[in-house]
Specification:
The structure holds 2 protein chains of 2 kinds. By secondary structure, chain A is α+β, with helices and mostly antiparallel strands. Chain A is built from 15 helices and 20 strands. Chain B is mainly α. A two-stranded antiparallel sheet of chain B has the order 1-2. The chains are: A alpha+beta, B mainly alpha. Chain A: It is found in: Cytoplasm, Cytoskeleton; Nucleus.
Amino acid sequence: MSETFCYILDNGAYTAKVGFSNAEPKVVPNCIMKAKSERRRPFIGSQIDECRDASGLYYILPFQKGFLTNWDTQKTIWDFIFSKECCPVNLSETPLIVTEPIFNFSSVQEAMTEIFFEEYECQTLLRINATDLAEYQYRKTHNNECTVVVDSGYSFTYIVPYIKGKKYREGIRRIDVGGKVLTNHMKEILSYRQLNVMEESYVINQAKEDSCFVSQDFMADMEIAKRKGPTNTIVKDYVLPDYTTIRRGFLRDVVRPDEDLEQQTLRLNNERFCIPELLFRPSDVGIPQMGIPEAIINSIEACPEENMESLLENIILYGGNTMFRGFRDRTYNEVRALALDHYDVNVTLGENPVTYAWEGGKMMFRDPEFYSFCLTREEYEEEGRPLAFERFDI
Amino acid sequence: MTTRESGRVKEGEKRRVLDDAARKRRARKAVEALEQDNFHEDPHADLVMSKKVPKFSDSNEKPTRKKKAKSAEYYKMRFRKTFAQLVEEDASYRPEPPNYMSAQVGPSKFPDRHFCAVCGFLSNYTCISCGARYCSVRCLGTHLDTRCLKWTA
């Protein structure tokens, strides 16, 4: 029953990372989208690439606040993912690794087990936290004792300390700021200041990815953004897609009014660094929570003191938000400033932040003990759900 | 006979001032709005799908799967629980921390920063009526004209 490859599904709230362990992962939007321009069909997952005009997209997401709640939507998307159109698989022959959020609710866990064994006729199943996979990869490549995993995703940011490969639950911290909050905040301020883009989540999300960066010195950047003329090195124009000649927007320098290029643009100035700033200071929009570096320290302080040194030396960042330019440096600088002086601090950005956990699954499959983590169909039929709760540490 | 008095004081008394509860309500609404998935109506909401329309598939083959796949609708009914229900359920299933609720981080020890509600730069002043922040007379003017007591979101 040892297969040479397995199927890994890192089921995120915004994108699912999916593929066989002997191939490259695909990043598929984990949602159904409806376009104004095409009235006949909804777009499931990566079908959105076929949509000619992605303005005013309407989102139907299976996740709410980071947890799976809309099962009909999720089932439709999984059917698409497992079909010929996306990444076909026969789960009765291939082991499956599927990820779940930390502290996933018990009834959601039950539903996961049931749907994979009974609907998709899975033979071997491993349900696991994405952070576990990330930690596994980090530990195997760094040979360290303790790790702090920072997963900054769409719905929230989790900080999970691991001691000798096991997560230390008392130290787990969640910040309710993720990519969704950033995009919504950006839409809100741009709609008030310039142009109503409240309906354009898809386009503004791209604008956010293309133009935002994490400031290293917030107050200094604010001063630069205030300047007029060429000394303001931050202000740029974001050219919006028109879906005839421009499919994806892009950032360009501000041009003089007389050389107008007849493109529809948004002027981005302090927005470029005030948006990602929310990850570091959620209180800027009235969310009464700590920012990421402060929460990292808070999490480490909740762990046994003898592990503090190793934890501070092994901080790994992944997830879509960590791809903002300057994210790692800012996190390092602030953690460095908050930690005691005689400790070393190391902050690593996952090589490919979006698929970092997925790659961890690939490594875990090669673990000689891999099958002892899994649940087989026979075991499930024999003992049912209680065994699933016992075996999977979610 | 006219009494001497300040024009600004007179003006100020006429102004409606939001109380603390209303300000908090507004702030909460603004934070809640950040969680929304869509800000417009389903563009296909008015489409009526007719069940009588014949369905065509690419091949003539009959589906050969042994077990009939359950519809998405079935799973919707089977695992129907809202987020609020799930949180409540979790509180009784895992009453002792660490759990979902206890993992949320507390407030920062750093003081809040305030930004102009209009232009986004640092602000030093607070609108008397609604408590929004502003940085200059110009921004205050914009704020009064557009959002102050008119904002409904």
